[in-house]
Amino acid sequence: MKICRSIQSLHTELPAQAGKTTGFVPTMGFLHQGHLSLVRRCREENDLTVVSIFVNPAQFGPAEDLQQYPRDPEKDIALLEKENTDILFMPENDEMYQQPFRTYINVEGLDKMLCGQTRPGHFRGVATVVLKLFNLVCPARAYFGQKDAQQAIVIRQMIRDLHLPVQIRILAIVRDSDGLALSSRNVYLSPAERQAALSLPKSLQKAAVLVSSGVEESQVIRESMQKELDRDPLLATEYISIVNLQDLQEIPVIEAGNTLIAAAVRAGRTRLIDNLLLGDLSC
Amino acid sequence: MKICRSIQSLHTELPAQAGKTTGFVPTMGFLHQGHLSLVRRCREENDLTVVSIFVNPAQFGPAEDLQQYPRDPEKDIALLEKENTDILFMPENDEMYQQPFRTYINVEGLDKMLCGQTRPGHFRGVATVVLKLFNLVCPARAYFGQKDAQQAIVIRQMIRDLHLPVQIRILAIVRDSDGLALSSRNVYLSPAERQAALSLPKSLQKAAVLVSSGVEESQVIRESMQKELDRDPLLATEYISIVNLQDLQEIPVIEAGNTLIAAAVRAGRTRLIDNLLLGDLSC
């Protein structure tokens, strides 16, 4: 695996691979099996697999966990070596946001709902860094996790609107044995918070059971989820949203193949998200 | 010359030219010698010359002249044929802004000064369409006129920030025999307005004389320009700005090689801009 710690180094390495189909997995590091499932699929579908590790400051709010965000580059490198990654791109912040930095991508209308309600500027930061990374890596395909479903929808819209020659693949959520969706932020949880947090996947399992039993009214599904999330006082619900996949508007009745049931909670100071996707976000 | 009226048609045509260096001249049509100077330079420096004609609605304000903007596609085609243009891309609005369209590029801080003061959203529209066109045409070099100096500075910043593999060339202002900078909008002017409008280039000539005689104080230059612009009651000054080329901030003393002296006026209902560039905007 070639490790490129600068744009110059990436620019030197990529042309040597000309003619190969490039697959790309952008990450913020502290890799878990969710990330590695993306790398594996990328390896299967492309000649060249590029992974980036970059904790992107533009997608963190001023009161968020940029400084504390977990990092373990040595372990990440070992994991990616084992997956036969071809190129690992680990740029420095100073180079990615060379001052004065002024250009931001806004995917208007999709950035205010769900997580956007409490994370203003988050999707602007995500869209900006993903476009920058696409321009640097020039992938034919890029791989994202379904856990960040809103992110996937924002990026899908950006790709369409800006005519980017990239296909995206959205891969299923990978869960721990207790059901909690894997997230680099799970490391923040105390044992009691983790126990409480299990209500999040449980609430979505309840939603799945209702949907498969024919329930279509969003309100019924939402109430069942809320009841589950209200079980433990350590857990605070941020939102439960049942929306369509085009504009993320709340829908009173779920649409087969076109619905996202998503929730965000706080367990102590840790924010967790999870979702149930009725449809496909790849394009 | 191959005329592509759809993205599909452009996508069919471009790969046939693979391996050639592509130069690109984005325009809004109603071509004049200023545009054609860009096309000629593009021809000299590249294997393949692509010109686009697209009156971009996103860069017009609601009270601006989108509907009236002059159009003459037959004449434009004839002019571009004569210049041996290889590909003319003339997309439809519905295809460039396929609904729902949501993704916009903001080059923050450079979009509020000079023309941005009276044209909110203008540079957001410019940056967005230029990035879209770059993504469709994939040029190695793109050509813009110095008359729209702020546009050039915004695009230069966007290219840097987003790591776009495009060089831009900013070519000198082409003027009519009476000194007025060529602009598609000059067609709006009545004979009396046109006569009044000549104070705009004259004011910049005065600035040039002052600068070459060693005057450095912006205030002195601005006052001399204002005096010239105040000559004719048909002319209303919108701004006179003396700014640096990095952040477009007003500077009290001009900096050799790093100063833009720019003005905007209204002659009747027609808005005109012109400038004197002390420096180079190509990159």
Write up what this structure looks like.
- 2 copies of one chain form a homodimer.
- Chain A folds into 2 domains: 2-171, HUPs (Rossmann fold), CATH 3.40.50; 184-275, Pantoate--beta-alanine Ligase, Chain: A,domain 2.
- Chain A has 9 helices and 10 strands.
- Chain A has helices at 7-13, 33-45, 73-82, 93-96, 122-137, 149-161, 191-197, 199-212, 218-229; strands at residues 2-4, 22-27, 48-53, 87-89, 103-107, 141-145, 167-171, 235-244, 258-267, 270-279.
- In chain A, the strands form 2 sheets. In chain A, strands 1-4-3-2-6-7 form a 6-stranded parallel sheet, with helices on both faces. In chain A, strands 8-9-10 form a 3-stranded antiparallel sheet.
- In chain A, helix 2 links the parallel strand 2 (22-27) and strand 3 (48-53).
- The longest helix of chain A has 16 residues, at 122-137.
- The A-B interface holds A 7, 98, 100-110, 127, 131-132, 135-136, 157-158, 160-165, 246-247 and B 7, 98, 100-110, 127, 131-132, 135-136, 157-158, 160-165, 246-247.
- Strand 5 (103-107) of chain A pairs antiparallel with strand 5 (103-107) of chain B, so a sheet runs across the interface.
Q: Mind telling me which CATH architecture of the largest domain in chain A this is? A: 3-Layer(aba) Sandwich
What is the total domain count of chain A? 2
Low-pLDDT regions of chain A: none
Helix content of chain A: 25-40%
Please write the string of helix (H) and strand (E) elements of chain A. Answer: EHEHEHEHEHEHEHHHEEE
Largest interface: chains, residues each: A-B, 28 and 28 residues
The rounded Rg of chain A comes to 19 Å
**Would you give the CATH topology of the largest domain in chain A?**
Rossmann fold
